Amino acid sequence: RWSLRDFDIGKPLGKGHFGKVYLARLKSPTNPFVLVLKCLPKDAVLKEGVTIQVRREIEIMQSLRHPNIIQLYGWFHDDTRIFLMLELAGQGEVYKHLRKAGKFSERRSSSYIRQVADGLAYLHAKDIIHRDIKPENLLLGSEGQIKIADFGWSVRMEADSQRTLAGTLSYVAPEMIMGQPYGKGIDIWALGVLTYEFITGEEPFGTDTSSGTRFTQARICRVDLRIPEYVSAEARDLIHKLLQLVPSERLPLAMIPDQPWIAQHHQ
Ligand code: ADP
Ligand code: MG
Ligand code: MG
To answer: Does ligand 1 lie within 6 Å of residue 41's CB atom?
Structure first.
């Protein structure tokens, strides 16, 4: 139904693993709707054997409708590329804002964490795990609301049954590193990593570039967590509840809104 001829292409918004992402506008005088086109070259998709992943990204996104999740409006392809038509997140990556600010205030962090938790709870209720929660894949809408993006690693699953190593090292959960079957708990772990990074501006277990992959992996598996002095007791408490080694001991997402650190900054 759709084709590239239906759109005016604007500036590039970002670049992912093989996706190029552009601002676009519908060529319609009555409805010049602004959106985002994520373009995936077919040869790269085939070469890396990720056809199933791209199909999943589309299928899963089509089934989602939530204020904190980027909406997929539709998709189409031509001879060489697959295009995803996405809701525009007007203020771009949380990553970019975090690097600019250094760190976020606890008030701002708690508002973001509550919104990410809301989106994740919606996904988990549909048996979808995202598997790649990190500041690059969290976007901000024009009003500054959180929008979870990039479902390229997401899967639909019921029990803990996945074993594939996915995502980005500094956000990966211990059970994934240890090759154990994992499930929704890995997104809750990533939420804990995110909480730490928002408040401190740094990743809790280091990055693979700063200190070496093995070292970071070892710190994750020991939950070798050192929270700076200036972090409030309430934030510290939530980080500890999320970053539990045993997945079943991590705080259920439904309990996030009632946590003191979330509740005190909200309403
Ligand atoms: P990849 O799967 O290749 O990582 P993403 O879906 O994460 O691709 O998109 C890459 C980048 O493009 C994002 O990190 C972001 O900067 C930008 N981007 C993607 N989708 C949107 C959107 N809906 N609104 C605004 N920017 C976006
Ligand atoms: Mg991405
Ligand atoms: Mg992706």
So the answer is: no
Q: Is the CB of 172 within 6 Å of ligand 1?
A: no
Characterize the bridge pairing of strands 20-26 and 7-15. antiparallel
Q: Which atom of ligand 1 is nearest to the CA of 136?
A: 14
Closest CA to 117 of 181, 195, 59: 195
Nearest CA, atom 25, ligand 1: 89
**Ligand 1: which residue has its CA nearest to atom 23?**
88
Element spanning 7, H or E: strand 7-15
* C-alpha closest to that of 261 among 105, 138, 101, 145: 105
Provide the 10 A C-beta neighbour count for residue 267: 4
Task: Say what the pTM is.
Answer: 0.95
**Which ranges in the chain belong to alpha helices (H)?**
42-47, 51-62, 94-101, 106-125, 174-177, 185-200, 208-211, 213-221, 233-242, 260-265
d(CA 163, CA 180): 6
Let me know: does 84 contact 10? Beta carbons within 8 Å.
no
Q: In this predicted model, what pLDDT tens digit does every residue of 58-106 receive, in sequence order?
A: 999 999 999 999 999 999 999 999 999 999 999 999 999 999 999 999 9
Candidate of 13, 20, 53, 133 to mutate for ligand 1, largest count of ligand atoms within 8 Å of Cβ: 13
Q: What are 164-219's pLDDT values in tens digits?
A: 877 888 899 999 999 999 999 999 999 999 999 999 999 999 876 656 788 899 99
Our separate counts of H helices and E strands in the chain read 10, 10
Cβ of residue 150 lying under 6 Å from some atom of ligand 1: yes
